[in-house]
Amino acid sequence: MSAPDSPAHFHALLQLRGRTAAWPAAAAAAAGLGRIIQAEEYLSQAQWTVLKSTECCYATHSLLHRNLGLLYMAKENYEEARYHLANDIYFASCAFGTEHIRTSGGYFHLANIFYGLKKLDLADTLYTKVSEIWNKYLNNRYQVLSQARTQQIDLLGKQFETDTGLDEAQEAEAIQILTSILNIRESTSDKTPQKTIFVLKILFMLYYLMMNSSKAKEYAMRALDLAKEQQLSVHEQNTIQDLLNLISAEEAHHIE
């Protein structure tokens, strides 16, 4: 099997996934390895393929523009990066909807550009939008699963390894996006603790649905500690305590 950083690896990737969708994926892999020139080569091929094809779907256009945006971010050409990320958001919205988790990645990367350019109000608005999209998605799944477990319906033996509804790559992206936003929120926790707690609770839900109780508990504890430290309302503290109680009840049931 070819090495992950070899040209043969990228060509194999193209053959396995089909040329139209695989060029952006190969470019992303190259960029991730710091191979900017190689990434540009793949993306120029992708652009040529997409422009020539009449069968490329909105999702493929979105993928292409997202990777072009990331490429230009790596080159610190933020004007071009913003152009491509705006196109990514447009095509992803056409394919999945403006409030879909598949669209949220474009908002997130655009927020990072604004954050780096010290346009903090714009960055904050977009980070909030990304958080709200993930909160809505995960909360819908969390409510169903937590109610079922509370009623002591034995789902654990009948489920897949996770209940996120995401594949492995999407879960990794969710963790990366949400922990990045958390790091930014924590830098201003003294001013906006509610925003930090909001992201901590989203991460709690994500890890809970991934069946990672220890990580879910860690984020809930951090949220509770911050709520107490900032003297937030009793209602807010009780809401977070309920998350911890759910984990504790499941751990006790598991021990039995």
Automatic annotation (TrEMBL):
SUPFAM superfamilies in UniProt: TPR-like
Gene: ZMYND12
Origin species: Balaenoptera acutorostrata
Protein name: Zinc finger MYND domain-containing protein 12 isoform X2
